[in-house]
Amino acid sequence: MSIAKMTVPELETFLRKEFPQAFSADDITIEAADGVSCRLRQRYGDQMLRPGGTISGPTLMALADFAMYVVLLSAIGPVGLAVTTNLSINFLRKGIAGQDVLAAARLLKLGKRLAVGEVNLMSSGSPEPIAHVTATYSIPVAKEI
């Protein structure tokens, strides 16, 4: 059962408008989002590589942070000013050049002011995670009208 406050099409519309620097290139696709978890795919591009032919850390961190933002928005609705307060990443194995990167995010705890979640990052051709991320987001206080 979905508890999402935003559907995938609503998320895409919101992100294209409010966060175009991260979402307008069409290299990231939201495959699913249900208010508790989400799955994103970043299409492979040579710009993702670092020397040595592995997917770069900044690419993985950015995708993980974006996945946390998407799962949070799917849970709370269009709150553009929710921001990352902490992100910790463990690189587990080499990301494979030539393969898309998948991000599977889920909320561990959703409070009034903070949300905590985790993200597993995988190369699309492998079931083994290439990185594990935990992140905390700050949720702004809703203004009363």
Description of the molecule:
The chain has 145 residues and is an alpha+beta fold. Helix content is 24%, strand content 38%. It has 3 helices and 8 strands; from the N terminus they run ααββββαββββ. It has helices at residues 8-18, 20-23, 57-76; strands spanning 28-33, 37-42, 49-50, 54-55, 83-91, 101-110, 114-123, 129-138. The protein has a 6-stranded antiparallel sheet with strand order 1-2-6-7-8-5. The chain has a two-stranded antiparallel sheet with strand order 3-4. The relative contact order is 0.20. The mean pLDDT is 92.
Distance between the termini: 32 Å
SSE ordering = HHEEEEHEEEE
Number of strands: 8
Number of H- or I-type helical stretches = 3
Return the structural class.
Answer: alpha+beta
Q: How many strands, what sense, and barrel or not for the largest sheet?
A: 6 strands, antiparallel
Radius of gyration: 15 Å
Mean pLDDT: 92
In the predicted model, the low-confidence regions spanning at least 5 consecutive residues are none
